[in-house]
Amino acid sequence: MSDAPATATAVEQTGGNPFIRLAQRPRLMLLLLAGWSILTVLAQTFTSSSLLLENHSASELELDGALGGLALGWQGIPLAAIYIYSFRNPVRYRPVFTLALIHMGALAASQLYHLLITGDFTIESVIVPLVGSVALGALVFVHLFQPRDDPPAPPSAD
Q1: Based on the number of CB atoms within 10 Å of its own CB, is 55 exposed (0-12), middle (13-18) or buried (19 or more)?
Q2: Which conformational region is residue 74 in: left (phi greater than 0), alpha (psi within -120 to 50 degrees), or beta?
Q3: What average pLDDT is seen over the chain?
Q4: How far is C-alpha 54 from the chain's CA centre?
Q5: How far is it, in rounded angstroms, from Cα 19 to Cα 29?
Q6: Any idea of the CA torsion for 100, 101, 102, 107, to the nearest 10 degrees?
Q7: CA quadruple 30, 45, 107, 135: dihedral positive or negative?
Q8: Where are the alpha helices (DSSP H) in the chain?
Q9: pLDDT tens string 9-37
Q10: Distance from first CA to last CA of the chain, Å, rounded?
Q11: What does the longest C-alpha to C-alpha distance in the chain come to?
Protein backbone atom coordinates (compact mmCIF):
# COMPACT_ATOMS: atom_id res chain seq x y z
CA MET A 1 0.00 0.00 0.00
CA SER A 2 1.18 3.48 -0.70
CA ASP A 3 0.86 6.50 1.52
CA ALA A 4 -0.69 8.55 -1.31
CA PRO A 5 -4.18 9.88 -0.69
CA ALA A 6 -6.98 7.78 -2.16
CA THR A 7 -8.53 10.67 -4.04
CA ALA A 8 -6.97 13.11 -6.45
CA THR A 9 -8.18 16.51 -7.47
CA ALA A 10 -10.10 16.88 -10.73
CA VAL A 11 -7.19 18.73 -12.30
CA GLU A 12 -4.83 15.83 -11.58
CA GLN A 13 -7.34 13.30 -12.97
CA THR A 14 -7.94 15.03 -16.30
CA GLY A 15 -4.43 14.72 -17.75
CA GLY A 16 -4.24 16.28 -21.20
CA ASN A 17 -2.75 19.59 -22.17
CA PRO A 18 -0.76 21.22 -19.34
CA PHE A 19 -1.69 24.72 -20.58
CA ILE A 20 -5.41 23.92 -20.37
CA ARG A 21 -4.95 22.40 -16.89
CA LEU A 22 -3.16 25.58 -15.82
CA ALA A 23 -5.80 27.84 -17.37
CA GLN A 24 -8.56 25.94 -15.55
CA ARG A 25 -7.27 26.88 -12.11
CA PRO A 26 -10.04 28.98 -10.55
CA ARG A 27 -7.90 31.98 -9.62
CA LEU A 28 -6.19 32.10 -12.99
CA MET A 29 -9.56 31.88 -14.73
CA LEU A 30 -10.83 34.77 -12.65
CA LEU A 31 -7.79 36.84 -13.62
CA LEU A 32 -8.33 35.98 -17.30
CA LEU A 33 -12.01 36.93 -17.03
CA ALA A 34 -11.17 40.21 -15.29
CA GLY A 35 -8.54 41.00 -17.92
CA TRP A 36 -10.98 40.27 -20.75
CA SER A 37 -13.59 42.55 -19.11
CA ILE A 38 -11.03 45.33 -18.72
CA LEU A 39 -10.05 44.88 -22.37
CA THR A 40 -13.68 45.43 -23.38
CA VAL A 41 -13.71 48.68 -21.40
CA LEU A 42 -10.52 49.81 -23.13
CA ALA A 43 -12.08 48.98 -26.49
CA GLN A 44 -15.08 51.11 -25.58
CA THR A 45 -12.87 53.94 -24.33
CA PHE A 46 -10.42 54.30 -27.20
CA THR A 47 -12.88 54.18 -30.10
CA SER A 48 -10.74 56.40 -32.35
CA SER A 49 -7.96 53.79 -32.49
CA SER A 50 -7.65 51.99 -35.84
CA LEU A 51 -7.23 48.79 -33.86
CA LEU A 52 -10.90 49.08 -32.86
CA LEU A 53 -12.76 51.14 -35.47
CA GLU A 54 -11.85 51.74 -39.08
CA ASN A 55 -13.35 54.28 -41.41
CA HIS A 56 -13.92 52.49 -44.73
CA SER A 57 -15.90 55.28 -46.37
CA ALA A 58 -15.54 59.00 -46.90
CA SER A 59 -18.01 59.76 -44.10
CA GLU A 60 -16.98 59.69 -40.47
CA LEU A 61 -17.90 56.64 -38.41
CA GLU A 62 -20.48 57.48 -35.72
CA LEU A 63 -22.52 55.87 -33.01
CA ASP A 64 -25.60 58.01 -32.84
CA GLY A 65 -29.23 57.88 -31.79
CA ALA A 66 -31.26 58.31 -28.65
CA LEU A 67 -29.70 55.23 -27.00
CA GLY A 68 -26.33 55.26 -28.80
CA GLY A 69 -24.47 56.04 -25.60
CA LEU A 70 -25.43 52.65 -24.17
CA ALA A 71 -23.18 50.94 -26.74
CA LEU A 72 -20.12 52.29 -24.95
CA GLY A 73 -21.30 51.96 -21.36
CA TRP A 74 -18.23 50.25 -19.82
CA GLN A 75 -20.22 47.24 -18.64
CA GLY A 76 -16.98 45.36 -18.15
CA ILE A 77 -16.00 47.39 -15.07
CA PRO A 78 -18.48 45.80 -12.62
CA LEU A 79 -17.82 42.36 -14.09
CA ALA A 80 -14.06 42.79 -13.66
CA ALA A 81 -14.66 43.98 -10.10
CA ILE A 82 -16.71 40.86 -9.32
CA TYR A 83 -14.05 38.57 -10.80
CA ILE A 84 -11.28 40.31 -8.85
CA TYR A 85 -13.32 40.23 -5.63
CA SER A 86 -13.99 36.50 -6.08
CA PHE A 87 -10.28 35.87 -6.66
CA ARG A 88 -9.60 35.82 -2.92
CA ASN A 89 -11.72 32.69 -2.38
CA PRO A 90 -12.91 31.01 -5.60
CA VAL A 91 -14.45 28.07 -3.74
CA ARG A 92 -16.65 30.32 -1.61
CA TYR A 93 -17.67 32.46 -4.59
CA ARG A 94 -18.16 29.55 -7.00
CA PRO A 95 -21.42 30.98 -8.46
CA VAL A 96 -19.32 33.71 -10.11
CA PHE A 97 -18.33 31.08 -12.69
CA THR A 98 -21.99 30.74 -13.71
CA LEU A 99 -22.05 34.51 -14.21
CA ALA A 100 -18.84 34.23 -16.24
CA LEU A 101 -20.39 31.55 -18.45
CA ILE A 102 -23.39 33.80 -19.14
CA HIS A 103 -21.03 36.77 -19.72
CA MET A 104 -18.86 34.90 -22.25
CA GLY A 105 -21.92 33.43 -23.97
CA ALA A 106 -23.47 36.87 -24.35
CA LEU A 107 -20.22 38.30 -25.74
CA ALA A 108 -19.94 35.49 -28.30
CA ALA A 109 -23.61 35.80 -29.25
CA SER A 110 -23.28 39.56 -29.74
CA GLN A 111 -20.29 39.08 -32.05
CA LEU A 112 -22.17 36.51 -34.14
CA TYR A 113 -25.25 38.73 -34.23
CA HIS A 114 -23.31 41.74 -35.51
CA LEU A 115 -21.42 39.60 -38.03
CA LEU A 116 -24.18 37.38 -39.40
CA ILE A 117 -27.47 39.18 -38.78
CA THR A 118 -26.86 42.91 -38.99
CA GLY A 119 -23.61 42.92 -40.99
CA ASP A 120 -22.23 45.73 -38.83
CA PHE A 121 -18.78 44.12 -38.66
CA THR A 122 -16.56 42.03 -40.88
CA ILE A 123 -14.98 38.76 -39.82
CA GLU A 124 -11.69 40.56 -39.16
CA SER A 125 -13.45 42.71 -36.58
CA VAL A 126 -15.08 39.90 -34.64
CA ILE A 127 -12.64 37.01 -34.89
CA VAL A 128 -10.45 37.95 -31.88
CA PRO A 129 -13.37 38.86 -29.56
CA LEU A 130 -15.30 35.78 -30.69
CA VAL A 131 -12.41 33.35 -30.24
CA GLY A 132 -11.45 34.92 -26.88
CA SER A 133 -14.99 34.76 -25.53
CA VAL A 134 -15.57 31.19 -26.73
CA ALA A 135 -12.22 30.02 -25.32
CA LEU A 136 -12.83 31.61 -21.91
CA GLY A 137 -16.41 30.33 -21.94
CA ALA A 138 -15.19 26.80 -22.69
CA LEU A 139 -12.69 26.95 -19.82
CA VAL A 140 -15.42 28.12 -17.45
CA PHE A 141 -17.88 25.51 -18.75
CA VAL A 142 -15.44 22.65 -18.21
CA HIS A 143 -14.57 24.02 -14.76
CA LEU A 144 -18.22 24.24 -13.73
CA PHE A 145 -19.09 20.70 -14.78
CA GLN A 146 -15.94 18.76 -13.93
CA PRO A 147 -16.18 16.37 -10.99
CA ARG A 148 -14.62 17.75 -7.85
CA ASP A 149 -14.07 16.62 -4.31
CA ASP A 150 -16.24 18.80 -2.10
CA PRO A 151 -15.98 18.53 1.65
CA PRO A 152 -19.05 16.85 3.15
CA ALA A 153 -21.80 19.19 4.16
CA PRO A 154 -22.17 19.73 7.91
CA PRO A 155 -25.12 17.90 9.44
CA SER A 156 -28.27 19.93 9.75
CA ALA A 157 -29.44 21.16 13.15
CA ASP A 158 -32.89 19.56 12.77
Answers
A1: exposed
A2: left
A3: 80
A4: 25
A5: 12
A6: 90
A7: negative
A8: 10-14, 18-23, 26-45, 76-86, 96-112, 123-145
A9: 444 445 678 877 887 888 999 999 999 99
A10: 40
A11: 77
